[in-house]
Structure formats: structure tokens, C-alpha cells
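Protocol step 4 of 6: structure prediction from sequence.
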Amino acid sequence: MQYAWLNGEWVSSSEEKIPSQSEGHGLFETVCVRKGSLRFWDKHWSRMTKSAQTLEMSLGQDSKDILRASKELIRKNRLRDGAIKLICHHKEAGNEWAIITREQCYSPEQYEKGFRIRIHPNARCLNKEKYGHKRIDHTGPRVARKEAYSLGFDETLFINKSGYLCEGSYSNVFFVKEGELFTPAPNCGLLPGIARGEVLRWATERGIPTHEGQYTLEDLSQCDEVLITNALAGAMPVASIELSCEEIAFDLKRAFVTMELVKHFT
């Protein structure tokens, strides 16, 4: 049996009473697990805490208690590579908390082949409260992700209403040009991911110039490498991007920065 942690109790992960991951008011975090250990826990908890403060929520749980339960859940479910998901439903009568696990969903073949990306047809508004937090009730990215899958793509990239690159439905985006690393700035309307921050730290340590700014689809079409990042995937190479009626391909054999980042997160 696979377990879940629900308000301090161990239950079956198939229990109907586990709070919804997509409905209601609250926050969530997806924390990577590699070789049975949690990655970047402090950064995930810090982000969740800051979001709760901004949205005037109380998490109602201590970091040490949630960390202890997360580690025990990993042990109970014998999870080696994958993730835990922290789900906090905010209610007037008191928060509902759940912790669940998931297996690694990215295969070695995907990292070798790279992702096929589409540009979402609708521009995204610049709403920091809506897009700047891991909110349970924010269904737009989930819908966009399903649409991408149904059309044969692996991910969707959003452009904001000012015409600049934003983020993916579940990822941040980077591109490399002449050995330098570029990524949209937070004021483009994105959620700065934990993996995004790790990429910037990694590049700085290695003397790779990094830039956070406002970039267009033309910038993306003229670069040498593209990659996306999230907590579970780490760094994922992008093999092609559909721009208007044209699909631009990238030579992954020459994606030197991207492949070093893939190794870094492995």
C-alpha cells in the first residue's frame, strides 16, 4: 500500500478524503527526491512561507514537523527518485494538510531526445498575485499543459501581454547564446522556480555570464540552446519550438551548457 500523510495521520494514498490538488484555496510545493533524499527543502519551505504571508494565510504547521513527516513518507513508500507534494488547504475552521509522493516521471530517453515546445496562443496578463505563487486554485497552467500534450508537445511557453517571454505551464525557460545564459526576469510575470535559482547559482560559480531581462520570440529563435527547468526535471533540453507556422530545431549535440546542467541535477 502507498501511504499519504493527512493532518498528522497515515492513510492510504487512494483515500477520497485527501484534499484536492486542484480545487480550493491554498498553496502547494513539489519537492524533488533523489536517491531517497529531499532536495532544496529549505528553499521550498521558505517560498511557501513567504507566499502564505503575502496572501495573508497561516500555514498552521511547523517546518520541522512537515519535514519529519515527509522523510517518513519517503521511507514508508520506498521512494528513491521522484517527489513529495505538500498541499495546504486554507480554511476558516483550520487548515487541511496532506503530503503525497510521486515517482520520477522523466525518463533518460526524454533528456536525450529533448522536449518539443509550443507557444501558447493567448498572451498572459502581468498578475503577480495570480502567477507569483504556487496556488492550488490556479488551473490555467494545468489546462495549458493538457492542451500541449493533446497536440503532441511536451510543454507550452507563455508570452506576456507586453510581448515578452514569460514561463512554461510548469517550468521556467532559459536560452544560451554565444556561451551566455539568458532567462526572463521575474517582472515578466513568472514564478521564479527553485531550479531556476539553482541554475543561476551554478552558472555564476562557473563564470558563465547570466542575464535576467525582457526577451522576445525573435531572441529565442536566434539562440544556440534552449532548456526548461523545474524542481522535478532539473534541467530539460529543448529540441524544438513551434513559432507561428515554423518549427525551429536545436542541435542537442552542441547544447554544451544544457547538457552540463542536466548532469548537475542528476
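Step 5 (inspection) to follow. Residues 108-265 form a domain with the D-amino Acid Aminotransferase; Chain A, domain 2 fold (CATH 3.20.10.10).
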